[in-house]
Amino acid sequence: EAESKMTIIRFKVTFNGRKIHPENIVIGKRGQYMGEVTSCAYADDEQIGMALVEQNYAKEGDKISIFVLPKDKNIEKQKIELTFGDKITLPEEAIILPRFRGTKNI
Questions:
Q1: Which residue among 52, 54, 63, 88 is the one 20 to 30 A from 9 at the CA level?
Q2: What Cα–Cα distance (Å) separates residue 8 from each residue in 14, 18, 37, 70, 77?
Q3: Could you give the CA distance from residue 40 to residue 42 in angstroms, rounded to a whole number?
Q4: Paired residues of 95 in beta bridges
Q5: Which residue, among 85, 37, 43, has the nearest Cα to 65 in the 3D structure?
Q6: What pLDDT was estimated at residue 106?
Q7: What pLDDT score was predicted for residue 18?
Q8: Model confidence pLDDT, tens digit, residues 65-92
Q9: Reduced to 3 states, what is the DSSP secondary structure of residue 32?
Q10: Is 56 helix (H, G, I), strand (E, B) or coil?
Q11: How would you classify the pairing of strands 25-27 and 6-13?
């Protein structure tokens, strides 16, 4: 099996909902697991963060999703167990930015 290569990406949350935290899950535009958030902070009124992801998915300008995990990781049911009124985690939308600020305007 080929070893995957990881890289750091910089991202911007496109709609500021919930606060992004380290270890939150990063998902690609087709639902594939990419990696995890390493850091995130507010810059003015936007959340800007970094994540460690598989290099094959790290394309500048691509949309990604970030699952903000609940504090109690056992709180959410499996999708097949859902019944009316149950709540599930919805992802926050983000976009991959240039690695270094000011190198390209997205």
A1: 88
A2: 19, 22, 9, 24, 31
A3: 7
A4: 12, 63
A5: 37
A6: 47
A7: 86
A8: 999 887 766 667 777 888 898 878 789 9
A9: coil
A10: helix
A11: unpaired
